[in-house]
Design goal:
alpha/beta, 2,3-Dihydroxybiphenyl 1,2-Dioxygenase, domain 1, four-stranded mixed beta sheet, 8 strands, 15% helix
């Protein structure tokens, strides 16, 4: 087996770094962990991050990209984002085929952000502080 990865960062490109960084910080409430000048990196979980970057040699291309943020409180996220004035395509719904409960929004660049909960018991749930899988 290959060595395990310790962390994950997804980088999304923007033409408006300040506005996009503000959206991730204020609207989603993600803590910024690093400012690299052309990129700002935000924590989404203990080992996962989203970076937003503005670089003249990179294309801003949201088509076909879906960033999924997994949460046990999809309804709470929906209420928070609606209250913040974020355009939500539709309320959360359960896809009975996949066992996913989710809704979609778009960031300021048009990237699709999916807030979802896996209701499939086979999903490898994140461990809580004690190291035990979190329950539903």
């Amino acid at each position: 087996m290959p060595p395990a990865f310790a962390q994950q960062v997804i980088f999304l490109y923007t033409r408006d770094l300040a506005g996009t960084a503000a959206w991730y910080a204020r609207t989603l409430g993600l803590p910024q962990v690093l400012d690299q000048g052309a990129c700002r990196i935000f924590r989404t979980s203990a080992t996962s991050f989203i970076g937003v970057c503005s670089r003249p040699d990179r294309v801003v291309e949201p088509r076909g990209v879906v960033v999924t943020l997994v949460s046990d409180d999809v309804d709470g996220w929906h209420a928070r984002l609606v209250a913040a004035g974020v355009a939500v395509a539709a309320p959360p719904r359960l896809d009975t085929e996949t066992g996913i409960y989710a809704f979609l929004v778009r960031d300021p660049n048009g990237y699709v952000i999916e807030i979802q909960e896996f209701r499939d018991p086979r999903w490898p749930r994140a461990a809580n502080a004690s190291g035990s899988p979190q329950s539903l």
